[in-house]
């Protein structure tokens, strides 16, 4: 089932999400719905707060980015093959490498894209959908997508990484989003 994506301005996007265990109600269905919602809205990742659940859960499919790169573009992300994975109760162990810019967007903040600087790699400790423990290091665009989604479960949005001038320049767009004055081709839930 495609779920409505929570729009900028909803308080759930600013909460630090809570850990869950294998007894979380209807978790398997929620994960399936998150995948369906993400693909229906042309996303590469989605976090539970974006579907109005303040829990430490997100899904990422960066394979679709890597698979759609031109051959010469693949040199920009050496060693990054992409992942399609579920991340539960994730914690960042460390980030490494130089920060580099990439034009990011967010399903909860439609029609706003800005360059965000993030580290080259991220090491994450997390559980998969079977609650098996993992500690892995991700790099390139995959690391970026993971850090973006991870921010969501900590109540942080990509716009929080922007310089004050950039934030002022997009202020009216953000106000329009929070008031529901925007059209998108996927289901959205706007703040009341």
From TrEMBL:
Cofactor(s) annotated in UniProt: Fe(2+)
Superkingdom: Bacteria
Annotated cofactor note: Binds 1 Fe(2+) ion.
Cited function: Removes the formyl group from the N-terminal Met of newly synthesized proteins. Requires at least a dipeptide for an efficient rate of reaction. N-terminal L-methionine is a prerequisite for activity but the enzyme has broad specificity at other positions.
Catalysed reaction, written as an equation: N-terminal N-formyl-L-methionyl-[peptide] + H2O = N-terminal L-methionyl-[peptide] + formate
UniProt cross-references to CDD domains, sorted A to Z: Pep_deformylase (cd00487)
Protein name per the record: Peptide deformylase
Keywords: Hydrolase, Iron, Metal-binding, Protein biosynthesis
One GO process term, biological-process aspect: translation
Catalytic residues identified in the record: 149
Pfam name, any one: Pep_deformylase
Residue numbers binding Fe cation: 106, 148, 152
Enzyme class: hydrolase
The EC number(s) this enzyme carries: 3.5.1.88
InterPro entries reported in the protein's UniProt record: Peptide_deformylase, Peptide_deformylase_sf
One Gene Ontology MF term: metal ion binding
Similarity comment: family membership: Belongs to the polypeptide deformylase family.
Annotated organism of origin: Chitinophaga caeni
């Amino acid at each position: 089932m495609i779920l409505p994506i929570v729009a900028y301005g909803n308080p759930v996007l600013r909460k630090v999400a809570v850990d869950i265990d294998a007894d979380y109600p209807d978790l398997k269905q929620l994960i399936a719905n998150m995948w369906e919602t993400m693909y229906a809205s042309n996303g590469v990742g989605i976090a539970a707060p974006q579907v109005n659940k303040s829990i430490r859960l997100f899904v990422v499919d960066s394979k679709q980015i890597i698979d759609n790169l031109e051959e010469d573009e693949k040199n920009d992300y050496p060693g990054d093959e992409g992942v399609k994975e579920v991340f539960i109760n994730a914690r960042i162990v460390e980030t490494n490498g130089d920060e580099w810019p990439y034009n990011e967007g967010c399903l909860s903040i439609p029609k706003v894209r800005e360059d965000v600087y993030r580290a080259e790699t991220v090491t994450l400790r997390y559980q998969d959908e079977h609650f098996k423990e993992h500690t892995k290091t991700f790099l390139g665009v995959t690391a970026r997508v993971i850090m973006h989604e991870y921010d969501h479960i900590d109540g942080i949005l990509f716009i929080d990484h922007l310089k004050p001038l950039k934030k002022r320049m997009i202020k009216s767009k953000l106000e329009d989003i929070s008031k529901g004055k925007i059209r998108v081709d996927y289901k959205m839930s706007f703040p009341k």
